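Quick note —
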Amino acid sequence: MVWRFFFIVMLFAFPLEAKKEHGLSLIGPLKYEKDFSHFEYVNPEAPQRGTFTYGVVGSFDTLNPFTIKGTPAAGLSHLYASLTFATLLERAHDELFSSYGYVAQALEVAEDKKSITFYLRKEAQFHDGTPIQADDVVYTFYHLKEKGLPFFRQYYKDIAKVTALDAQTVRFDFKDSRNKELKSIVGDMPILSKKFLEKNPLDKMGLTPILGSGPYKIDTFKPGHRITYKRIKNWWGDKVPSFQGWHNFEKIDYVYYRDPDVAFQAFKTGDVDFRIENSASRWATQYTFPAVQRGKVVKDKYHHAMPLPMVGLAFNIRRGKFQDRRVRQALALAFDFEWANKNLFYNTYKRIPTYFVNSDLASTGKPQGKVLELLKTYQDQLPREVLTVDFKLPVNDGSGNIRPALQRAKRLLKEAGYRIQNFQFVHEKTGEPLKFEILLNSNSYEKVLQAFIQNLEILGVKAQLRIVDQAQYLNRVQNYDFDMIVHHVGQSLSPGNEQREMWASHSADQPGTQNVFGLNDPVIDDLVEKIIIAPDRESLRVYCQALDLVLLHGWYMIPFWYDDTFKLAYWTHVKRPEKMPLYHLPLDVFWLNNSKENVQSQPGRM
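Predicted structure written out below.
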């Protein structure tokens, strides 16, 4: 007994120290050992050569991805996946919730889970040759919160402080240990130069390139037209295991096109090397040009396990006409997915049924078990249907005749206080007709939305499309000056802090957030906080499914469609690894078999 007492005393007198690790996993052991040489989904022998040209539809007017001012150029990112900005850790894309060393060569999670310490590589440096040090990490964190996107203030809300312990060591302290994802979140933070930011604060920058530390730097650019990145010679990260087989292009050239059809023509002529094809009709009918027939262009399609965004028409419920849930549901009934899939999409797509598409976090059917128990705690604040009805989107026969759905929509509008007057629904009390505008920044969805508008007209509701340029669109959306937009709600396999930016009440009236709907609901707020501090995967699943049902029954969006495959097209000089990761499409692991100049001179290019 004495030795046991002595052991306990010694345990508290000298607590077990945390262990330095080469990577971080949120759910279990790491796949790759400490001495791993490269990820399995790369070709470590891939040659590094040539210029890779990628077509982008749209425009850009800033090189600063960290504020709400303007549209950033492709290749820049305010989180990981940036060509120019290094992060503490690099995510592995063939395992869930795992990251490995990037700027940090090692990390240490405290025993109480309330902090994480990173040990920086001495060789890591910015593009001007100055070393990346702990002070840069600290300064970046506070600078992003003060002058960056509103997103950062919420994303980093649960971080109490960041401290430089010495030149190569930095510690993040958390407010508590409940938010397990915080360790991964801080690993994704881009690291900027303190010296640079002191002279060039983010809120004052636009077309001045921000000093980076990643594998590429901006070479040339012309706003709205083109931006080219050049690979850093003898980049400090070349020997980091996480990047063996990556960054195989000497230059990456993003060329901008105003119209998707023009971008496709540029690919056909060989001006663009690679496409991710998002049009089902184009994939089915237009890849018959001579270069495809001669085997010069590859059509490549494969399934992935990535969570997909909820895409659809988002209601701005700040508008009085959309504040009644029955009105939103009625308008959703006029959207005929089956007709669009048959006549426009070659029956390629599936209807989006959830806010957590292609994920085990999605709700299915009526709530049961722990999900039902959780929702019952809010039953006085929720529509009865959330707890009792199996949420189902309308299903039509594809003929274009959706009379049953429109009859149901009419009943809902009458229940919401509308009546028919001169073949149009008007509000009984105000006499205001039910009409609205769908704001777009391109004609990509024009055909399907025109069909939707025709159905609305039959119903007795007037709607119109308004297509504006990118700058005007961005300004109006950031200031919530719209009735309805096409919106993408991206999700990860591990939802966390970003949910505040999407749904929480505090973001409803703050310009530039992802809460484009104007949601201000205490139930949603509470579920979001539960998701953030979920203690385990099962709890996270319960909280996400509950949130999913509340959002679905709220009819805040009219869901579109999805496809769980990547449809890729590229010229034969572009090569990819045989084994691709399930959870990402990293173009930087592709390579060029020959220089583009040699391939372009070959006969049969067209």
